[in-house]
Amino acid sequence: MSIFLEKLGEKLGKVMDFLGGEKHFSAIKDGICISIPLTIIGAIATLLANPPIPVTLDMNSFIGRVLSVWQTVATNGSNVLNLVSSITMGSLSLFVVLGIAYFLAGSYKMNRLNVMISSLISFIIVAAPFKTLDSVKAIPISYLDAKGLFTAILVALVSVEIARFLLNANIKIKMPDSVPSVIAGQFESLIPITVNILFWQMISWVVLRMTGVLLPQFILDLMKPLIATSNSWVMVVIIGLFINGFWLFGLHGGNIVGAVINPFLLLNLNENIAAYEAGTEIPNILVSNFHVLFMNFGGAPAALAILIAIFVAGRSAHQRAIAKAAIVPSLFNISEPVIFGLPVVLNPILAIPVLIVPILNGMIVYFLMYYRVLGRMVLAIPWTIPGFIGGAIATLDWKAAVLWFVLLAADVFMFIPFIRMYDEKLGKSE
């Protein structure tokens, strides 16, 4: 079994090394990461503007009076808070298109600023074309949020490649050597920017004439089956298998899988936030960081349960030393000390619970949210916040914290037999 895992790990490692170094894949992953601070700031503004006041709460109680004051402050400051939400969550795709263009242009050693400007203009052309309302020119903002995310990715990648092709083909305005490089660079970018503008204007016109909708909506319509799957229990299984499966081979499962699923989960989160602000039913279960808060407690692959199981049942000096060193980082969902120190990597004994336990956690939480026993996530939470705190804040439901501890205890019991088996193996070598 161990030899099989090593050989499989070598083959997967080569594939993942290629993907990790692939410029477009890396640019998407890094570009979307730029949106993390924005989603957190937007989430804070949303929470401040919309106090979580239960319908059944006695407003004359202490908590009721506190929330009543909060509601008054929120009402008076609604304009400011809504503005913060609009320029963060409401403009998410603008920042993503800039981020992806920045990283991809950098990987090609291109002028990042010129490429970012070209990509941004191209995205606005297809996602927010100017309209005249009462003699005032304005741009619609409907697709500047997460609904335009897939379009932002497409536009950024294609715009950079168009510019790279033209520059490599020497199709540019060449200035004399005596002209300062800063000015010469702007003239060199004129043709790529112009070609991009014309190209995306044509694409937008064709899509609008053929379908009657803008390009972002057309892409969303095409991806409806995938978007629906991203909110199903099937995705819980896929996330659990792939994220933790990659970690078994020493590959960063979160980064690899996140580059593919994060656009879908961000879109789901944006819809939940909009529903929460509107006071309507929260539609989605799987959103950003669901796997961190409700599947992999303490970081992938359920590292905190592994460590507690070692404290409970482990006798090996090696295991206990790793557990003591890794317990604090794991409280903040940092699990590398466990993965590489224990190790979990290429460990056939721990492979079964590493794959199964997080999926069981996710399925239980999924169906509790599905039947609305547990609140659904409406706020973006940093992945380093301890799970029981982050889950309660993200869902605005105290039951999430209780469930976190219950599931963690169950996880520990499931890991204990495997920790004992691994303990025996280590004991013989020690």
Give the helices and strands, then pairings:
Layout: H1 2-21, H2 23-33, H3 35-49, H4 62-76, H5 78-88, H6 92-107, H7 112-127, E1 131-133, E2 136-138, H8 149-168, H9 181-188, H10 190-211, H11 215-222, H12 224-229, H13 233-248, H14 253-278, H15 290-294, H16 303-313, H17 317-331, H18 336-341, H19 348-370, H20 387-395, H21 399-429
Helix pairs in contact: 2-6, 2-14, 3-5, 6-7, 6-8, 7-8, 7-10, 8-10, 13-14, 13-19, 16-17, 16-21, 19-21, 20-21
Total strand segments: 2
Q: What does the oligomeric state look like here?
A: single chain
Helix amount: over 70%
**Terminal CA distance:** 22 Å
Which strand order do you get reading across the main beta sheet?
1-2
Uncertain parts: none
Mean pLDDT: 85
Shape: globular
Main sheet?
Answer: 2 strands, antiparallel
Task: Provide a descriptive summary of the structure in words.
The chain has helices at residues 2-21, 23-33, 35-49, 62-76, 78-88, 92-107, 112-127, 149-168, 181-188, 190-211, 215-222, 224-229, 233-248, 253-278, 290-294, 303-313, 317-331, 336-341, 348-370, 387-395, 399-429; strands spanning 131-133, 136-138. The protein has 430 residues and is an all-alpha fold. A two-stranded antiparallel sheet has the order 1-2. A hairpin with a 2-residue loop joins strand 1 (131-133) and strand 2 (136-138). Helix 16 packs across helix 21. The longest helix has 31 residues, at 399-429.
